[in-house]
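Hi R.,

As promised on Friday, here is the backbone we talked about, encoded as structure tokens. Could you run it through your design pipeline when you get a chance and send me back a sequence?
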């Protein structure tokens, strides 16, 4: 499925939800796997979860990414003086509804925070689901401060500390941790969209790991047919099925074979 970045005259954007609000599993678009599925991140062979950092519970917003964007690791940002983190741009959706992993929602962009995560630029767009009851009254980062008191402070606190339980130092921010406004955010999004275009349209692989194979971008040299895309899906869907059967019913299977033989 082709999910466009812009959905209405460059004001509303499509967002792909990776992590539902209040949950802990670090689900993310796996850019290094064919067709970029959403999977739980694995570190040192273990599934990754974020810790609950008092007074927060899991991710405090619906967390996800804007499709068709890329924070280019070979580009040094003028403001942050750091390179991109090699991922799509991240979004914190502050609406009250809990969304689902993989859901695509339309969001209104309100502002942006410049996180420096382990020396990389990692922009965090602040946005609201247009279907949220508060969406019509939220039109700027100042509106968020007034209508949702504490949300912005909690967001800075969360990103500052979320890696501390893994033994890492507190994260830093550009602009002293101040949020930039909606117009600034939209300029950053547009820049990451241009980086993404260059990534999927280039003729040669640079030997890096991002898999740009797709079935919908007409001019992309990485475009594949629907049949090829389906083959990728079929190849991976068989394994989890057997894994599921084995893990869920292994006791019964062993018992069954014991009776049989
Ligand atoms: Mg990021």
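Update: got your reply. Pasting your designed sequence below so it's all in one thread:
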């Amino acid at each position: 499925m082709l999910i466009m970045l812009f959905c209405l005259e460059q004001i509303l954007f499509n967002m792909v939800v990776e992590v539902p609000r209040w949950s802990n599993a670090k689900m993310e678009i796996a850019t290094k796997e064919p067709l970029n599925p959403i999977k739980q991140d694995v570190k040192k062979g273990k599934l990754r979860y974020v810790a609950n950092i008092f007074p927060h519970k899991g991710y405090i917003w619906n967390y996800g990414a804007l499709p068709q964007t890329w924070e280019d690791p070979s580009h040094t940002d003028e403001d942050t003086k750091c390179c991109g983190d090699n991922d799509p741009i991240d979004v914190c959706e502050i609406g009250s509804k809990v969304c689902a992993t993989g859901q695509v929602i339309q969001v209104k962009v309100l502002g942006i925070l410049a996180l420096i995560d382990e020396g990389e630029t990692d922009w965090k767009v602040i946005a609201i689901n247009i279907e949220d009851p508060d969406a019509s009254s939220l039109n700027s980062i100042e509106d968020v401060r007034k209508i949702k008191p504490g949300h912005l402070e909690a967001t800075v606190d969360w990103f500052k500390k979320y890696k501390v339980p893994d033994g890492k130092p507190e994260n830093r921010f550009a602009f002293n941790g101040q949020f930039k406004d909606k117009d600034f955010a939209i300029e950053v999004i547009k820049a990451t969209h241009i980086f993404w275009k260059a990534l999927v349209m280039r003729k040669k692989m640079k030997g890096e790991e991002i898999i740009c194979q797709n079935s919908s971008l007409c001019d992309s040299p990485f475009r594949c047919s629907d049949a090829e895309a389906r083959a990728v899906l079929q190849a991976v869907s068989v394994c989890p099925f057997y894994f599921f059967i084995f893990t869920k019913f292994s006791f019964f299977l062993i018992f069954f074979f014991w009776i049989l033989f």
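One thing I noticed while checking it: The pocket of magnesium ion is lined by residues 85, 87, 90, 122 (CB under 6 Å).

Thanks again,
M.
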